[in-house]
Design brief:
Layout lengths: L7 H11 L19 E3 L2 E3 L6 E5 L6 E6 L3 H20 L2 H17 L1 H12 L3 H21 L6 E3 L6 E9 L2 E5 L7 H13 L2 E5 L5 H13 L7 E3 L4 H13 L3 E7 L2 H12 L4 E5 L4 E5 L5 H13 L9 E7 L3 H12 L20 H16 L3 E4 L15 E4 L6 H4 L6 E7 L2 H9 L3 E2 L1 E5 L3 H10 L4 E4 L14 E2 L2 E2 L12 E9 L2
Parallel strand pairs: 7-8, 7-10, 8-9, 10-11, 12-13, 12-18, 13-16, 15-16, 18-19
Antiparallel strand pairs: 1-2, 3-4, 5-6, 6-22, 11-21, 14-15, 17-20
Length: 512
């Protein structure tokens, strides 16, 4: 049995919720991995202030538990612990780092079901989706456990006699990792796996909505034998998020920052990192086009649309944001999409047959409502949904299908981050490309076409970092994840993910 430290009132609440008749057998809850403390220098610690914040289940509104409301002083302690641990970890042979990552991976795999339940409990997504995220997130530790041994330098051909030139790759130092609530497991493993494989140490600040998944992961890292100070977790409520982020950006002991979140926050962190010329990796917002050409297999396109748009209730950065449909297949696509959407079942993610959970918080619900209202006020037509599912819960919104979309609508220009499918009609390939590229974002894009020549043309012309061609799910540990324009800097996953955490050092041997 793994350790937990929760106050008696929280343990009582856990037992009530775990045994509630509202949860099916597939979602019964265990408290083995739940922690109400942060993790600094190998120890479970409270906030120095003694303050805590509530974490709620978005499906029910019930309080899951209390987490430490840490602040800048706690963050400084975590940074110092990581800095102190860095020299020894950096000198640990890559093979040994890889072995420890493999042990962490094995523990995550063997405890996947329990971690998935925690993830569903605090993030709200259906349990089947949480299990999918766990498998996806685990794959990054699996991948980087092997990549640790492949961080190779170069021997260069010298331009003069009696000289040898060599390039080494060395870890940058302490890496600050700020992760989002929509993928609380995978966004940590994607960043931390690369950083640890490279020889960096980490300070992780998980989102305030989903701290318990992060704490469960670091519990398993500790049990895998990763040395104290190498991974540190600082949790906090929303008011302390900005000061902690500023400290992570400006503290001279931090060598680099990796952030996944909104473009607006990413720009602020980028500015703050400039004071110390930090290494910066930013995975920011998107406005993904999903193009369906006349030659497409419409049934496959609809299934791809469902997978891309409605995973995690539309709360993903690479979610299809605008469905751009050619006029010859527009009516068929829209009708089939509406039919599939009508079969969604909303509810508590712990129930086995639920495939659409709640939005994460009230702010997200208000944003989605405002986007739909704006579209309707400007002439859009609602073909399905368009309202809250208040009979299920306060944070549930019925998956919505909109047509008659105009460029002056918020749903056309903004990242929706909710279960809203907006469908636009186009005539020519050039028009589809122009609509797709007419945004400052460039993270992901999708298109369906059975014309090979067209596939190459469109793939080359879309201004995005990742493209799904006749495919709605594109993420994998082996692939380079990242965007262009205002959607970010750098890449995560793949062999390129390591590059964010290493410096190149040039050695010139003379007089040979």
């Amino acid at each position: 049995m793994l350790r937990y430290r929760f106050p008696k009132e929280c343990l009582k609440l856990f037992r009530i919720q775990a045994s509630s008749s509202r949860f099916s057998n597939c979602g019964r809850m265990s408290i083995s991995f739940l922690h109400n403390k942060g993790f600094i220098n190998g120890s479970w610690v409270d906030a120095k202030s003694g303050k805590t914040f509530e974490v709620k289940n978005p499906a029910t509104g019930e309080v899951i538990g209390l987490a430490p409301d840490m602040d800048v002083e706690d963050t400084k302690s975590a940074i110092k612990a990581a800095a102190d641990a860095f020299p020894a970890w950096a000198k640990t042979p890559a093979k040994e780092r890889g072995v420890l990552l493999r042990k962490w991976y094995d523990l995550m795999v063997s405890n996947s079901d329990e971690i998935a339940k925690i993830l569903t409990w605090e993030a709200g997504k259906p349990l089947s989706e949480s299990k999918g995220e766990i498998t996806y997130g685990n794959s990054f530790i699996d991948w980087f456990a092997e990549e640790a041994r492949r961080i190779n330098g170069e021997v260069l051909q010298s331009p003069v006699r009696n000289r040898e030139m060599v390039l080494l790759k060395q870890p940058i130092g302490v890496a600050a990792l700020i992760t989002p609530w929509n993928f609380p497991h995978a966004m940590i493993t994607r960043k931390a796996g690369a950083a640890l494989a490279a020889g960096c140490t980490c300070v992780i600040r998980p989102a305030e909505d989903t701290p318990f998944t992060a704490l469960a992961l670091v519990d398993l890292a500790d049990k895998a034998g990763i040395p104290k100070g190498v991974i540190n977790i600082v949790t906090s409520g929303r008011p302390n998020a900005a000061p902690i982020g500023k400290e992570l950006c400006e503290n001279p002991l931090v060598a680099g920052l990796s952030f996944t979140g909104s473009t607006e926050v990413g720009k602020l962190l980028y500015k703050q990192c400039a004071t110390g010329i930090k290494r910066v990796g930013l995975e920011l917002g998107g406005n993904a086009p999903f193009i369906v050409f006349n030659s497409a297999d419409i049934n496959k396109a609809v299934e791809g649309a469902i997978a891309s748009k409605f995973r995690n209730c539309g709360q993903t950065c690479i979610s299809a944001n605008r469905f751009i449909i050619q006029d010859g297949v527009f009516d068929e696509f829209v009708e089939k999409l509406r039919d599939r959407m009508s079969k969604f079942k909303l509810g508590n993610g712990m129930d086995c047959d639920v495939n659409q959970g709640p939005l994460i918080n009230a702010a997200q619900v208000k944003k989605v409502e405002a986007i739909v209202k704006d579209a309707v006020d400007k002439g859009a037509k609602v073909l399905h949904g368009g309202e809250r599912a208040s009979n299920i819960g306060e944070l549930f919104y019925v998956p919505t299908l909109l047509v008659d979309i105009k460029p002056n609508m918020a749903c056309y220009t903004e990242e929706i981050f909710g279960p809203i499918a907006v469908c636009l009609k186009f005539k020519t390939e050039e028009e589809a490309i122009a609509i797709s590229n007419g945004t400052s974002r460039g993270l992901a894009g999708y298109f369906y076409s059975n014309d090979l020549n067209q596939a190459w043309r469109v793939a080359r012309n879309l201004e995005v970092g990742m493209i799904g061609i006749n495919e709605g799910l594109i993420s994998a540990a082996e692939a380079a994840f990242g965007g262009v324009k205002e959607s970010g800097i750098g890449r995560e996953g793949s062999s390129h993910g390591i590059e964010e955490y290493v410096y190149i050092k040039y050695l010139c041997f003379g007089g040979i």
